[in-house]
Design a protein that fits this description.
10 strands; Aminopeptidase; two-stranded antiparallel sheet; DUF2817; alpha/beta; eight-stranded mixed sheet
Length: 310
Amino acid sequence: MQQTPFYPIGTPGQRWGDAERAAWRARQVRQRSHADDVVTRIDALRDRFDVETYDTLDYSGREGGGRYPLLAIRSRDWNHDLPIGVITGGVHGYETSGIEGALDFVETVARNYAGRINLLVVPCVSPWGYEHVQRWNIDAIDPNRAFRAGSPAKESAALVALLTPLRGTVLVHVDLHETTDTDESEFRPALAARDGVAFEPGGIPDGFYLVDDSERPQPAFQQAVIAAVEQVTHIAPADADGEMIGSPVVAHGVIEYPLEQLGLCAGITGAQYVTTTEVYPDSPRTTPTECNAAQVASIVAALDYALAHR
């Protein structure tokens, strides 16, 4: 199969260098404001939760760059005798419902867990990606393949530094994502071009699904989350090969990845219960509001199951 003909950067069969990355970066357009959309909502929570700036991304002086505070929301009166729940969103900044779902959860539901579990919520891991509606960071690195010590992705390195001290003490970690039509039309072709390999078209699952950890699967936990989300939006079926995005469907709405091995966000904490959500916002069967509600439902179901099965 030939390199996809429509991706405009790079030479088929050759990995990108600095010039190609610069050309890609020059094509990115700021489309929304992290300060207005995300920081403002987090600031409004300061009377109820502890908010910390765990790092600052400084991309100022670079084309399309700027300075971005990386913000985490913590339960007030953190109690070391309680279990810990971690919620992360916006690892891929273009995946809007992960960010909005995390914020909706904190604004409307999180108070119900006071005195039961310590919550640490990072609504937007990748603010540059959020503003530019991009999967990658400013250096054309996918943060969700780079969560490891010494990561070249500053967003990933910062979150690893925040969460590593909690490793082994986290009960449940929910990482909120989307799978969109642009995954197939833009981001996968860009990935193939960047890496100098042939683009192989795939498919986009129509509906919500979860990614479990193949190294430490928790099938009953995953099904509890699926059952809750199914009351809000539809669950993606397997394709004709019994797969979704090239991975075998191991249960209703569930596939598996080796999370830590692949450098995925959900693998940072070593939580007993861990899942990655995937919403399909481009489906004609759903709406943005429904997608946000599905993310909130997944968090609530995950926390409730984990607390009941400690």
